[in-house]
Write a structure and sequence with these properties.
The chain has 211 residues and is mostly helical. The protein has one domain (3-209). The protein is built from 7 helices and no strands. It has helices at 3-30, 36-68, 70-107, 121-132, 136-145, 151-180, 185-209. Helix 1 (3-30) packs parallel to helix 6, helix 1 packs antiparallel against helix 7 and helix 3 (70-107) packs across helix 4.
Length: 211
Amino acid sequence: MQIEIIFEVILLGVALSMDAFAVSITDGLTYIDIDKKKSFFIAIVFGLMQALMPLIGFWLVQGITAIVGENGSASAGKIMSDIVSWTAFGLLLIIGGKMLIEGIKDIHKKEEEKEPKRFSIKEVLYFGVATSIDALGTGVALHSGLSSVSTIWLHVSIIMVITFSISLVGLFLGHRIEKLLKGKFEITAILGGSILILLAVWIILSHYFGI
């Protein structure tokens, strides 16, 4: 593989990992019981999901192409891209909206009534899917751009490592911000929810307008 192509894949990995970076900051902000073990778990989930989705997209198009040909696979790829963008939007909007509403409600509660948000494997998996599902479209694009099927494995490996690393940075930043807020759980919930909602909107805008 040429150096130029590797550089392009690295840039692609950084671009794809921005969703995971934003959600990692949210996790670092809102999980009161975050530690190194949980941080690595979150980063691994985000990295694996970000690698898995392009693979799924790539092999879906590979299979569709074998059945209906290039023209049919192009149309299917466009439809799939629309579906996954709106799915990611819906997941992030629901989780972010719930978090934002809970944070606003907590403003009016007494300190002893407030419940800090704790680490949830189920929620981390939701986040992993929500931040990576739009990468299915990347698999479609990679299918049309790769000269060798075997090259896809190197592409997704690079994307996985970059997402893992950037997610750890996001978790660290979020946790540091949470420490500065000194236990203001309602503020961290509002900030975290707002980040997720903005990310949901950004996914749709970037899908339709290339922002």
